[in-house]
Amino acid sequence: MIPRPLPARALLASFLVLGAVHLAVQLLGPEAWSRPTQVLLMPVLALLVLAATERPRSRLVVLVLAALVFSWLGDALPALAEGDTAFLLMVAGFLVAQVVYVCAFWPYRAESVLHRRRWLLVPYAGAVAALMWVCVLHTGVLLVPVLLYGLVLGLMAVVSTGVNTWTAVGGALFLASDSLIALRSFVPGLDVPQGGFWVMATYLAAQALIVLGVLRRVRTPDLSRSAV
């Protein structure tokens, strides 16, 4: 769903260009450009949402904007620390973002795999369970936050299926992206070639598809579009 207003289309194009630049940095360097390009991406998506919607904005739109803000904090805050502290700052930002996404998508749960095509819950549950099983022996003091994050992330992916196909794919890609982070962070010797590139490629695609799916959904009035 391409947004109709011209400013929103310009912002979508800007996001795509910035995303391409950031992914090129992931592949080719220099590493010093990685964080500066990364921290610009979520603000551009948030501006896109603002440009594509009108006041009074629905509950869904407001919560998605909040999730993008906390995602930006997850991108930016790790630069202020090192080691486990940096990782915890990232997890904290994205944990809140995932909780907000769950709250945003929850009114649509009757249309999700929680109630329709329930057999699809099996791959979601299996993916989260397998990830936790592989990582749990290596998390150390981070066990509780990692387990909590995994459960919330899985729930977000599940309830995202209730909004529409765009958000469902976005939620699944978010699960894939964060699974790659967990495997790279906690499982010794387990990484994929150009892991940082694939983490960011799936993350950026996830956020963009969630945003575009939400913009498509709010164009169809329903009982969950209460204004704020």
Automatic annotation (TrEMBL):
Parts of the chain that traverse the membrane: 33-53, 60-81, 87-107, 119-136, 142-159, 166-183, 195-215
One Gene Ontology cellular component annotation held by this UniProt entry: membrane
Entries under InterPro entries matching the protein: TMEM86B-like
Membrane topology annotation: Multi-pass membrane protein
The family this protein is said to belong to: Belongs to the TMEM86 family.
Keywords tagged on the record: Membrane, Transmembrane, Transmembrane helix
UniProt superkingdom: Bacteria
Protein location: Membrane
Protein's name in the database: Putative membrane protein YhhN
GO molecular function annotations of the record: hydrolase activity
